[in-house]
Design brief:
This protein is mainly β. Helices cover 5% and strands 52% of the residues. A hairpin with a 4-residue loop joins strand 5 and strand 6 (150-158). The protein starts with a helix and ends with a strand.
């Protein structure tokens, strides 16, 4: 039975369970179905989400997953410097998980991932192709629990997501989500959540059950604190993150990297206005070069009315440092750590390093199930002496000292259809008009991108 057949069967049977469905979370382990233990009658779908294993109902197992199909077509991919693909390509991803609660304090979560790429003009990367692997496998032990406090110890392979996903994300956009091997302490209070973690990044490899456990190349740890309902500010995040990489390459430096990141985020909502401001400073060293990097971001949105059908205007802007002077023994290139793949739109053409961008947008609910979005983005290099990078911090083009800072214009349109919690369909298109810098360092052609995503969660 192929993936297409599985998808058709699932979409048919799950529509019958629509009335029983709860909203699905980005991190599937954040979903909780213990509330079903008090139900006297469960339908077949609820039994899949809550299969009682003890008379008390505190021991149970829950099953779920996701099937996603995507079709993409690029014209002039890589601004004309990549192999041309006249037919486009297909990506599909299968995620299956089981969540076992042995009692109120012990839990085991496991998730398989299969990511397939078909029709690529060039060999697909591990971000697109990873035939089958153990994506998550961790155990939770609740060390302390009362009305106001919960302290949990987590050990194993796990996804992580913090803040606005600018620095740590499960990387939903690309075909292969990312995970970490390690340990975490999670403290929850009424208005405060704090995580302390030490992990090693899981490096994806093509093949079956061969992603390397506790990869030696990348160590990653830190602490993230969220404080809610802070007077005058709303919500405040403060954090420290440290990364050590055995091999790292930047504009003019290559070697071992030790980088510390300290930052804060202020976010919330006041009536129709949603706001999100963040600042971050990085220090450390790469080989013998000292690091001094930073970023400032602002993400604001305003809804033009109180009804659900009112349009929302948005404005994002970011300043992200780049290297100032090659060979001076210092590096100012910002490391975005483990960000979401679709950082500046679903086409994911540019990553967040050495950039200044201004990004207005508008979102319009066309009905209760259909929404349209239009984005316009302007990109400049922050420094003339640094190039531009992919979301994974691989250099796309090097610096051209005499060239312009202007990278280009990007216009994107998206249409989303969400008829119920199970089904998500998105049609998207992007046009990127190359600026003077792109034209000076490569073929300099304009990019056109079209994509369709169909996702079924259960």
């Amino acid at each position: 039975m192929n993936m297409k057949t599985i998808f058709c069967i699932l979409i048919t049977v799950l529509l019958a369970a629509q009335a029983s469905a709860q909203p699905f979370m980005s991190l599937r382990y954040d979903e909780h179905y213990a509330y079903l233990k008090d139900s006297t009658r469960l339908n077949w779908y609820q039994q899949m989400k809550y299969d009682r294993l003890s008379s008390s109902g505190n021991s149970f197992v829950s099953f779920g997953g996701e099937v996603r199909y995507q079709y993409f077509k690029f014209k002039n991919e890589g601004w004309g410097d990549a192999a041309e693909d006249n037919d486009g390509f297909i990506l599909n991803r299968l995620l299956l998980h089981a969540d076992l609660h042995l009692n109120k304090r012990i839990r085991l979560f496991t998730q398989l991932q299969s990511s397939i790429a078909v029709g690529r003009a060039e060999p697909p990367s591990p971000v697109e192709l990873n035939e089958l692997d153990m994506h998550q496998l961790f155990a939770d032990a609740i060390l302390l629990q009362d009305e106001d406090n919960t302290l949990t110890f987590r050990a194993g392979r796990q996804e992580m997501n913090y803040g606005s996903s600018r620095l740590i994300s499960p990387r939903e956009g690309p075909n292969n989500r990312q995970a970490f091997d390690g340990f975490k302490l999670l403290l929850k209070k009424k208005r405060v959540k704090a995580d302390v973690f030490f992990t090693r990044y899981v490096r994806s490899k093509k093949g079956i059950f061969n992603d390397q456990a506790f990869d030696k190349n990348t160590q990653f740890g830190g602490a993230y604190v969220v404080m809610n309902s802070v007077p005058l500010l709303g919500n405040v995040d403060v954090y420290y993150m440290g990364i050590r990489k055995e091999t790292s390459a930047w504009a003019d430096v290559k070697g071992k990297e030790l980088r510390h990141s300290v930052g804060s985020r202020i976010w919330g909502k006041i009536k129709r206005w949603t706001y999100d401001f963040e600042g971050l400073f990085q220090f450390g060293d790469v080989a013998n070069a000292s690091i001094r990097a930073w970023t400032l971001s602002s993400n604001n949105a305003y809804q033009l009315g109180d009804s659900e059908s009112a349009p929302t205007l948005g404005l994002k802007t970011e300043m992200i440092s780049g290297d100032k002077r090659p060979g001076d023994g210092k590096i100012q290139s910002f490391n975005p750590l483990f960000p979401r793949g679709a950082y500046f739109g679903y086409a994911a053409l540019i990553g967040p390093s050495n950039l200044f961008d201004v990004h207005p947008s508008i979102g319009v609910p066309l009905s209760s199930t259909v929404s349209a979005f239009v984005d316009y983005d302007l990109f400049w290099r922050y420094s003339l002496h640094d190039g531009i990078y992919t979301p994974g911090v691989a250099m796309i083009y090097p610096a051209e000292d005499g060239s312009s800072k202007f990278i280009g214009h990007q216009i994107s349109g998206t249409l989303e259809y969400v008829p119920n919690p199970f089904v998500f369909i998105r049609v998207e298109t992007t046009w990127f008009k190359a600026g003077d810098y792109i034209k000076s360092v490569g073929a300099g052609k304009n990019i056109y991108y079209f994509g369709v995503t169909t996702t079924l969660r259960f």
